[in-house]
C-alpha cells in the first residue's frame, strides 16, 4: 500500500491536525447548490453527538468548476444555540481538496480513506454531497455504531418510494442477500459509516485503476465488508431525498455500472458465497418512523413497449443466455395484455442467475451482455409497478421479500452451473 502524497498546503493542514477520532468524507462534483447544507448538517451532528471528539470534514472533489470547494470552506453553523447546543464543542477542521486518479466516486473515497489513515481515525462516514434530507442525526447513526458498538460497517436504511430504487429492489438486494447471507437492505445506498481499520483494509485492495474507482464503489464497499467477515450493521436514516428518475428511462448506464460491479465481485468472492445457504438479518439502529416521500412518476405503457421491443430484437441473444425454455416463458409474458401483465419472480431469478453465469463464462463482452438485460429489467419493473400500484409501503416491501426468497431458494441453480 503506497503512502498518499498531497499538495503542500494539504500536507501542512494534516500535520497541523495530527490525529482525529472521526473523519467525515463528502465526495463532490459541481454540487455548489447543495453541499453547504450537507456541510452544516455534518458540523451540527459532530457538535451535538460527539462534542468531545476531534473531528475532520474532508471534501474530496472531482474538479468542480462551480465553486463547490469554496462553499465547503465558507459553510458554518452561525449559531450553535439555535440547534440547542450550549456545551463546549471541539472545533471541526475542514479539508477541501481535488482527488487524483480515475474520475469517479471511488477515487474520491480513496482520498478520504487515505486521510483517515494519516489521521489514525477510529471511525469514518461518507455522505453524498447532493442530499436534501440529511439531518445532524445521520452523523450519530452512521458513526456511533462504530465508536460505541464495535461495528466496522454501517449501511444506510432509508424509506424510499415503492417505485424508487428499482435496481436495488429487483437485482442488487435480492442477489447480494442470497449470495452472502446478510440482509443489508440498501447495499448501494451512498451514505455509509465504517471503522478506521476497514478504511485501511479497503486501501490494500488493488481496485483503484478499475471500474470500482469510476462507479462501483458502493457495492464494492458493502460486499468487501461482508465477504471479509467485518462486523456489519445498518442504521435507519429516514427518507433519502434526491432527484429520482422514472424507472423506465435513463437507467441503461446505471444498470450496466451496478450489475457489472456486482457480477465482478461474484468472481472475486466465489469461494465465500458458494457455500452460503439462506440469509440472516443484520442488527439495525435508529428509530424507524413513517416519512412523507416524493412521488415517482412512471410510464408503464412505455416500459411494456420497451420490453416487447426487446423480445422482437434481442431474442437471439436472449436464447444464448437464458436457454430456449426460459426464452419461451419470456415471450409468453410479453404476449399478456397490459392489464394482466405479470413477470413471475421465479423466472426473473433465473434470468439474473443466467446473466451472472454468462458473465462468468464470458459468453459475450460484458457491456454488450448487461445492456441486453435492459428490456428484461424494464419488463420486470413494470410488472412490479402494476402489481404494487394500490399497495401501501409495507405490502410493496412484502413483494420484495417474496422475490428475495426466490433468489435464496433457487441459488443451487447458480452454484451448480458456476463450475
How does this structure look, described?
- With 419 residues, this protein is α/β, with parallel strands linked by helices.
- It has 2 domains: 8-285, Spore Coat Polysaccharide Biosynthesis Protein SpsA, Chain A (Alpha-Beta Complex); 300-418, no CATH class.
- 52% of the residues lie in helices and 12% in strands.
- It has 17 helices and 10 strands.
- It has helices at 8-17, 32-49, 68-74, 105-118, 136-147, 166-180, 196-203, 211-227, 252-268, 270-273, 300-322, 324-334, 345-360, 366-371, 374-388, 393-409, 411-418, and strands at residues 22-28, 55-61, 93-98, 123-126, 153-159, 182-183, 192-195, 232-239, 280-281, 284-285.
- An 8-stranded mixed beta sheet has the order 3-2-1-4-7-5-8-10, sandwiched between helices.
- Helix 3 (68-74) links the parallel strand 2 (55-61) and strand 3 (93-98).
- The longest helix is centred in the C-terminal third of the chain and has 23 residues, at 300-322.
- The radius of gyration is 22 Å and the shape is globular.
- Mean pLDDT is 91; it is low at 245-249.
Amino acid at each position: 500500500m503506497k503512502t498518499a502524497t498531497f499538495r503542500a498546503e494539504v500536507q501542512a493542514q494534516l500535520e497541523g491536525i495530527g490525529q482525529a477520532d472521526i473523519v467525515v468524507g463528502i465526495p463532490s462534483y459541481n454540487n455548489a447548490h447543495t453541499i453547504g447544507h450537507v456541510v452544516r448538517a455534518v458540523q451540527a451532528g459532530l457538535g451535538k453527538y460527539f462534542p468531545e471528539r476531534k473531528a475532520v470534514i474532508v471534501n474530496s472533489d472531482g474538479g468542480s468548476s462551480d465553486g463547490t470547494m469554496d462553499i465547503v470552506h465558507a459553510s458554518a453553523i452561525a449559531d450553535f444555540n439555535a440547534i440547542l447546543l450550549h456545551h463546549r464543542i471541539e472545533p471541526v477542521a475542514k479539508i477541501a481538496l481535488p482527488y487524483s486518479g480515475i474520475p469517479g466516486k471511488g477515487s474520491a473515497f480513496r482520498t478520504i480513506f487515505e486521510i483517515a489513515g494519516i489521521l489514525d481515525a477510529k471511525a469514518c462516514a461518507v455522505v453524498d454531497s447532493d442530499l436534501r434530507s440529511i439531518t445532524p442525526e445521520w452523523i450519530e447513526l452512521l458513526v456511533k455504531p462504530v465508536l460505541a458498538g464495535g461495528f466496522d460497517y454501517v449501511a444506510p436504511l432509508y424509506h424510499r418510494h415503492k417505485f424508487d430504487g428499482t435496481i436495488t429492489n429487483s437485482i442488487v438486494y435480492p442477489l447480494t442477500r442470497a449470495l452472502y447471507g446478510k440482509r443489508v437492505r440498501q447495499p448501494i445506498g451512498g451514505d455509509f459509516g465504517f471503522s478506521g481499520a476497514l478504511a485501511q483494509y479497503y486501501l490494500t485492495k488493488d481496485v483503484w485503476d478499475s471500474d470500482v474507482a469510476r462507479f462501483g464503489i458502493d457495492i464494492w464497499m458493502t460486499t468487501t465488508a461482508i465477504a471479509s467477515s467485518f462486523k456489519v450493521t445498518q442504521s435507519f436514516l429516514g427518507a433519502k431525498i434526491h432527484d429520482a428518475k422514472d424507472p423506465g428511462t435513463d437507467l441503461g448506464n446505471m444498470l450496466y455500472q451496478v450489475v457489472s460491479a456486482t457480477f465482478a465481485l461474484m468472481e472475486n468472492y466465489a469461494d465465500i458465497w458458494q457455500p452460503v445457504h439462506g440469509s440472516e438479518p443484520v442488527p439495525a439502529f435508529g428509530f424507524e418512523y413513517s416519512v412523507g416521500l416524493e412521488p415517482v412518476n412512471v410510464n408503464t405503457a412505455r416500459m411494456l413497449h420497451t420490453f416487447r421491443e426487446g423480445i422482437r430484437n434481442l431474442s437471439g441473444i436472449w436464447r444464448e443466455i437464458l436457454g430456449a425454455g426460459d426464452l419461451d416463458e419470456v415471450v409468453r409474458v410479453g404476449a399478456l395484455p397490459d392489464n394482466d401483465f405479470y413477470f413471475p419472480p421465479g423466472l426473473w431469478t433465473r434470468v439474473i442467475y443466467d446473466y451472472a453465469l454468462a458473465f462468468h463464462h464470458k459468453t459475450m463482452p460484458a457491456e454488450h451482455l448487461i445492456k441486453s438485460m435492459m428490456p428484461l429489467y424494464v419488463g420486470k419493473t413494470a410488472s412490479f409497478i402494476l402489481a404494487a400500484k394500490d399497495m401501501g409501503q409495507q405490502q410493496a416491501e412484502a413483494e420484495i421479500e417474496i422475490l428475495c426468497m426466490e433468489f435464496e431458494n433457487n441459488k443451487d441453480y447458480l452454484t451448480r452451473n458456476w463450475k
